[in-house]
Design brief:
By secondary structure, the chain is an alpha+beta fold. It has a single domain, classed as START domain (Alpha-D-Glucose-1,6-Bisphosphate, Chain A, domain 4, 2-Layer Sandwich). Helix content is 29%, strand content 41%. Strands 1-7-6-5-4-3-2 form a 7-stranded antiparallel beta sheet. A hairpin with a 3-residue loop joins β4 and β5. The termini are far apart. 20% of the residues are buried. The mean pLDDT is 85.
């Protein structure tokens, strides 16, 4: 069974500005209030393009009173347009993708999170998503990303 959370936002910035913010994973804790840290899994420093296919990252996030750590693997990439990662947590597979599409005088930034697993687990997870306001967290994440992009030259 799948459960999907999709949020889109207009950004008054270029595709390059938004992509620059999206791809700079080590800087995410500076602007995203829910991310505690983002560290490449192999411990190597990444310079420039962080979304290399197969690259793994460890992300620690604030979720209510918890700070779970997720191991993320880049599973889809069209530079400047789309990226996704996949993670497993408590027997649920999460796929999180971001797309950037041209819009008049800016771009549309879209976040698509799909959660897959055994139906009873997904139904239970939906309760958790509601309690921890995951949709709202996604809206805040995109808003913070947009503000950061709009500040770039």
């Amino acid at each position: 069974m799948d459960y999907r959370i999709e949020v889109a936002l207009y950004v008054d910035a270029s595709r390059r500005q938004v992509w620059d913010v999206l791809q700079d994973l080590p800087a995410w804790p500076e602007w995203d209030p829910y991310i505690v840290d983002m560290v490449r899994d192999d411990g190597r420093a990444s310079v420039g393009q962080h979304w290399l296919p197969g690259t793994r990252w460890n992300e620690r996030v604030r979720r209510g009173p918890f700070a779970p750590r997720f191991r993320l693997t880049t599973t889809g990439l069209t530079p400047g347009r789309y990226v996704e990662w996949t993670a497993r947590y408590l027997f649920v597979t999460g796929i999180h993708g971001w797309s950037i599409a041209d819009a008049p005088a800016g771009v549309t930034l879209r976040s698509i999170e799909t959660f897959r697993g055994w139906a009873p687990l997904i139904w239970s997870a939906r309760i958790g998503f509601s309690l921890f306001r995951v949709r709202r967290m996604t809206e805040v994440h995109l808003g913070a990303m947009a503000r950061r992009a709009e500040q770039l030259p």
